[in-house]
Design brief:
Elements: H1 6-35, E1 41-42, E2 48-49, E3 52-54, E4 57-72, E5 75-82, E6 90-94, E7 98-105, E8 114-116, E9 137-138, E10 141-143, E11 149-154, H2 161-166, E12 171-176, H3 178-182, E13 193-201, H4 215-220, E14 226-229, E15 235-241, E16 243-250, E17 257-261, E18 267-272, E19 275-283, E20 285-288, E21 293-299, E22 305-310, H5 321-327, E23 337-348, E24 370-378, H6 382-385, E25 392-394, E26 406-408, E27 413-420, E28 426-430, E29 436-440, E30 455-458, E31 463-469, E32 480-484, H7 487-491, E33 495-500
Parallel strand pairs: 1-15, 2-6, 4-7, 6-12, 13-16, 15-23, 24-27, 26-33
Antiparallel strand pairs: 3-4, 4-5, 7-9, 7-10, 8-11, 11-12, 13-14, 16-21, 17-20, 17-22, 18-19, 18-21, 22-23, 24-25, 27-31, 28-30, 28-32, 29-31, 32-33
The protein binds CU-O-CU linkage and copper (II) ion (2 copies).
Length: about 500
Amino acid sequence: MIKPTASTRRQFLQTTALASLAVGTATLTTSTAMAKTSEPSALNIPRLETGRVESGVRIYDLALQNGTMEFFKGTSTKTSGINGAYLGPTLKMRDGEKVRINVKNNLKEISTLHWHGMHLPASQDGGPHQIVKSGEIWSPEFTIKQKAASLWYHPHLKGKTAEHVWRGMAGMLIIEDDESDALELPNQYGIDDLPLVLQDRNFEANGNMPYDPSMHFIMMGMTGGTPLANGTTSAYFEAKTNQLRLRILNGSNASIYNLGFDNDKSFKQIASDGGLLEASVKLTRLELAPAERAEILIELEANEKITLRNFGSGGSSGNGGMMGGMMGNNGSVPNFKFLEIRAAGTLEQSSTVPDKLVTIDRLREEDADQTRTFDLTMNMGPLVMMGLKNSHLINDKVMKMSRIDETVKLGDTEIWIIHNHGSMRHPIHIHDVQFQILDRDGRAPPPNEQGRKDVVLVNPGETVRLIMKFEDYADPNAPFMYHCHILEHEDAGMMGQFVVV
Ligand code: C2O
Ligand code: CU
Ligand code: CU
């Protein structure tokens, strides 16, 4: 008999672990596929909340609350939402305005609410340190210093972000500015300008939508077999204009979507996470990782019917083969139909959007004051499988509330180099800034990744270099976060803290 060496033994353990994960996924897909089918229903459009102005401050009221949703006719599901049973209103704000958001916690547990993509003081960011206790109100206040963009908000409680978002707490946040006004982009909310929060969830036969923090899902991220668009299953939208602007947010916990339309109908991406691109980019597929946003324009013919769907794994991911596809994560996202768009027989003609949109000041490598490296690693050993060791790490560490990992000087331009040493894809998010991607493995990013970003998907084996400038807000006592936006990875500790001083 051959005695296994340490390395073959490790390999064996890894293979066994992978095999059991593979079985887990297969079972899940089958059971959810059988779970529910639903009648087509009109796409829910979250209420547009423009706030009220009192002595120069625009004020919004939000309440985190539990509720009941009817995702499927006749079946009720326990959920959580913001000012409603599931998801929250779309907040509209304007560059230069001072805003205050009263966040009331009507849950029976603590939570937080974070303004994802916003440039603001760390103490107002709503990260894991800004806890809102049950029954209390937290009222952050800040001035919008930001380009027109589609941002979002969601809870960010340490160890609980994934569950709170899964239950339904998230919403979109639209920022407008003079540049976006001048472009005459479609901007009739709910008519030719639609927020689109894409998610997937698991439902049991009784309607329950349980959050399952099993080891499998901590490793792989929590995914579901039912697609939701703004919380609507089998959603359709009746278009009355020949052009639609979709503000798409991947609001899932862990799924990377590869979006497109039937018959490879093309569309134009006009904005990435942090605002408009320099020029629109014509695409037939758009890969969006958790927390990424893209604004797209699509043109419609009278009576046209098209479906926005997920086309499975993107292929540009560096996942090869069965194993790669599995651990490359989200190779296994089903061919979801998110939204059917039904164009009316006569369509109102909207104004044509120019190809050239805005000018983006490029940060230059030569101007960098500091370079930092972040190594993403994954542990797959037996201790991890038993839950005794953390699976996903940044620079070999798990997040600790009491530890500041990086100290940044106000006004500095920095290059952050992210190496992914693991075999899963990780969407890395940095608070406070909109960064620019310098390169992926030494190559310029594709045109739709050349704008402002706050999430970047880092593929297995890949090295991505980001450049950013830390401006306006310094506070040695309040840290900002950087983390993987697969929420189970974030909760498992794949997060670090930086202060700007
Ligand atoms: Cu979308 Cu740290 O968050
Ligand atoms: Cu964020
Ligand atoms: Cu991750």
